Amino acid sequence: MADKQMERILIVDDEKTNIDVLVGLLSESYTTVVAKNGEQALKRATAKTPPDLILLDVMMPGMNGYEVCRRLKATPATEGIPVIFITSAHTAQDETMALKSGAVDFIRKPFNPNVVLARIETHLILKRQQNRLVELNQLKNTFLGMAAHDLRNPLNAITGLSDMLMTMSLTPSEAREFISTINRASTQMFSMINDLLDVSVIESGAFGIAPKPGDLTALVKERLDMMRVTADEKRITLDSHLEPTPQIPFDHERFRQVVDNLLSNAVKFSPPGTTITVTTRPVGDDGLTVSVADQGPGIPEENRAEIFKAFTTSGAMPTGGERSTGLGLSIVKRILDAHNATITVDPSTASGTGTRFTVTLTASNLEDTVNEETLKRSIQEGDGDEDYVDEEPKRILLVDDDYALRLMYRKAFSEYGFIVVGEAENGEEGVKQFQELSPDIVLLDIEMPVMDGITALKSIMRSNPDACVIMLTSINHSQVWDDCLTAGASHYITKDTAYSMIHKRVEEVWAAHT
Known about the structure:
Distance between the termini: 50 Å
Structural class: alpha/beta
Radius of gyration: 30 Å
Oligomer: single chain
CATH class of the largest domain: Alpha Beta
CATH topology of the largest domain: Heat Shock Protein 90
């Protein structure tokens, strides 16, 4: 969206008095440019920095205002610039000619200054909205192009290797290598899709955070431990200096994304044998910093602000052939903006090489976002550090239209001592099985055919308000979670949760439910 102070208005009039009045009226809020005839107007409208709006007189020597407007609307570079006629012509025919030539408005002289300002601002707002729609359409096209191109290769690998696993005789080591490659390719696809979905949610305006008090240093340590295997594969050392930091509110799921993106970027662009240094430090009584510094090629100063834009990269190539959507840092920036936090990027060495990202978060910046609903959710989630053990195995009903996910969950829960008593592929069948089987816990997908998960949840809660229903979702934002909890769900689990952690999450929810 354009900054109002930077918006340019081209005033086209051959009378000096009229020009002086309009410049005096507008110059405090807008940048004004002047043309004294039609030829000058066309030239200045196609300049390197075109106007955002044109105020156009009708009667001028040479080319009149109607012809100027028609030419502007016939030229691709200027057809989108709104034109408002300001003229002493008073007849309905004059106004009709102005509108037919492509103008968006018609103001008669002598004019009321407040009316002129109001109409200018109205049409500039419409122009900003139009520009935003164009940007979103371009973003959509980029999404589709990326999905078609970048997802095709890993999908081909998964399809081809899984077909060979089913039809060819392979040695155990070959089969293990195939399965490992399929796992890496599917993880790569999942990461790309998550990035695309997150940016889609952000751009739609539905993005939100659910902050709750927590230990960010502990979260950083957890994500470091998760990243060590990947770093070890590239012979990269993860060196951490984690000082205790104050318990302050932040959205735990979103900050996992922030830390994971910064760590994975550092590993991705670091040469083998180098060190990544991660630090946490308190700032004052209610703030902290998290920094991630690598020894990679660094980011030129002129590119540092651009890297936080969607589909923008630093220009450096990943050192291990990794793929990148160019979305990670733009998502990080929007998450931090939602927390009123900041991120800076600087060289990590005195010689100007390497890159250090530093995140600064202050509790006082989030005071207004921690409310009763957030605290309620915090209590429902628990702190995640306890191990819950039940004497009797819990009976689970799986409701999801994706057979592969049901297969994975069925095996995972069986391995960890649960009993899967039933499976359903839509909400209607899920409600029916709930009534027939009386399971302890229902895992319920949100998006399903026949009956969606929220509708099924409401039906289950009407028949048994004490039911323990855990929603499954691929959409990771607060509005979806709020809808689930409002409808009666005990909790929710995102579908990217590792199968080895699902049982722990379910046990935690069951313990809180009982």
